[in-house]
Amino acid sequence: MFLPTTIKEVRARGWEQLDVILFSGDAYIDHPAFGAAVIGRLLEAEGYRVAIVPQPNWRDDLRDFRKLGKPRLFFGVSAGSMDSMVNHYTANKRLRSDDAYTPGGKAGFRPDYAVTVYTRILKRLFPDTPVVIGGIEASLRRAAHYDYWSDSLKPSVLVDSGADLLTYGMGERVVLDIARAMGVDTAGMSVDESVAAAVGAVRDLSLSIGIPQRLHEIGVREEDIPALAVAAFNDVCTGGNPRPTSVGDIEKLYRTAF
Ligand code: B12
Predict the structure, then answer these.
(1) Ligand 1: which of 53, 81, 101, 170 to mutate, most ligand atoms within 8 Å of CB?
(2) What is the C-alpha separation between 47 and 34, in angstroms, rounded?
(3) What's the pTM value of the predicted model, to 2 decimals?
(4) CA separation for the pair 117, 123 (Å, rounded)
């Protein structure tokens, strides 16, 4: 059975609400060459209720973006297998006449800067639902970059699009970690309990992707702490800190993280 792409197919599976809804600039081909299919099938195999909206229409009344409602966990957005600008234009900035990731090889089924266009629409329609961006366009535009097509410098696509989280490179492991972290059910918890659950989920996520948890794990020695605190305080960026700090504050922070 294919992953659902319409509300009728969602209902046919007996689902009331989806956990994750994926939007992609490519057609939905249930094949490992298509990122959204790979990510969707993996989430499905872990028991999540997933649907795909391939090549949503961004020029009409946005019904494609609304049709499946609001997911319980997050929206996943990708431009498809290629950067949308590479997909649309040749290196001479001439419009391409075909699109290898659209039925019949037809062009014109995704917008320029697709990640940004799709995410902005979703954020406008569902401001409280997290949007996770991934795939090649998000990956290659993850930091401030030179955009050949507009001959300008652009900030990270996270800033331009307004997405909540950007993943880059292969998405298999990280997307499952994100779903687990976002799946923490806070219903019935007090504010303090919810905060503790959120902190725990972020800690589990950082552990699962191998981020060191303590300073000593990256080779810092306890006797280095005073000198490190002075160096941090003297850093040019300290003056721009929104909260005034002191060498003592930083040293305390470092000892806690040791
Ligand atoms: C196969 C292929 C083709 C085939 C496509 C056949 C088909 N219909 O499938 C053909 C030969 C037709 C082709 C053509 C072209 N291609 Co090509 N192609 C590839 C190739 C080798 C593999 C694509 C693939 O199957 N990837 C597998 C999928 C699963 O990977 P993925 O989409 O990246 O998804 C992963 C992650 O990105 C992430 N992810 C994806 N989506 C999402 C979503 C979320 C929410 C999350 C969290 C994560 C996530 O997780 C996925 C799993 O790890 C790639 C190189 C590569 N290794 O990716 C180049 C590549 C995509 N092609 C490229 C180019 C330039 C082209 C051409 C323009 C070449 C040309 N000058 O003509 C043409 C396109 C012409 C056109 N009109 O469209 C470039 C694109 C560069 C860019 N910046 O966009 C690539 C990256 C190669 C390169 N390094 O230069 N191509």
Answers:
(1) 81
(2) 20
(3) 0.81
(4) 10
- The torsion angles phi and psi of 76, rounded to 5 degrees, stand at -110, 130
Identify the helix (H) or strand (E) that includes residue 119. helix 114-125
State yes or no: pLDDT of 185 exceeds 80. no
Q: State the DSSP code for 96.
A: P
The pLDDT, as a whole number, for residue 161 is 96
- Mean pLDDT value across residues 14-36: 95
Q: Report the 10 Å Cβ neighbour count for 131.
A: 22
Indicate if ligand 1 lies below 6 Å from the C-beta of 86.
yes
Instruction: Check pocket membership of 100 for ligand 1, CB cut-off 6 A.
Output: yes
* Whether the Cβ atoms of residue 174 and residue 167 lie closer than 8 Å to each other: yes
Residue 207 to residue 204: CA distance in whole angstroms: 5
